[in-house]
Amino acid sequence: MNLLPLTLYVAAGIAYAVHFARRQTAVGRLATVLLLLGVLGHTFVIGMQTMEVRHVPFANPSRAISTFVWLLTLSYLYLELTTDERAMGVFILPIVVGLQMIPVLNPGTENTDPVLDSPLFWVHVASLLFAYASFALAGVLGITYMLQFKELKAKHLGYLYTRLPSLQMLDTMNRRAVAIGWLFLTIGVAVGVLWASQARAVSPEDPNIRAMAIGDPKILFAVLTWGVYSFSLVARRTLGWSGRRAAWLSAVGFAIVLLNFLPLNYFVTTSHTFE
Length: 275
Description:
The protein is an all-alpha fold. The chain has helices spanning 3-22, 25-53, 61-83, 89-105, 119-153, 167-202, 207-210, 217-239, 243-261, 263-268.
């Protein structure tokens, strides 16, 4: 079923690329419609999986990635519809398509471990996924800011300058995305601590539960992510680190998120592996 939204995301990505190159309004609207159809199709897929397992399907890594992609596309659509700015689509859709290929190629099965049957677990994961989606958006906005800044600094107002939003708009959107992501990351980490304590009381011999400590790479990188974005917010407010410095921090933070979300999640961590 994951092939349906992937197909629509690919079509939307092509339309966004054509719109970015040619700046044709009709093509831009088509890209938005295709992306909206992709989100609706993805919502249907997640809804069917939810009915199948009786909860939102993110106890399996591949399905968690699919849910993350869904949240990222929703976040981007909200940004596009509230700013009437479609230029970012050409940067967001490659991430969407690349990540959505993972559940298509390796759908996996939802885990039914009793220790996961807790409202705290679902709040923990949902909060983190939404935070990561916000950070992905902020990371792309940060990279785009640096591209635009480079053209302005070189006094070469060329191809990108005429197509990308202003530096002020990019910085404002980046600040909002980081603030929202930090809020949900804080909630996710705090609830995760509560859930881990609850899980230890229920299943003290479960090796996955016993491995949940600050030394586990996945947990360590989650704390590192929180630290990077906390510093970004504090530095923006107290040191005036806006613009290019904030953009760099967003890009670095998103790189840490991707490292935690993909290779560490699949190959390194000794906890969070309930399959």
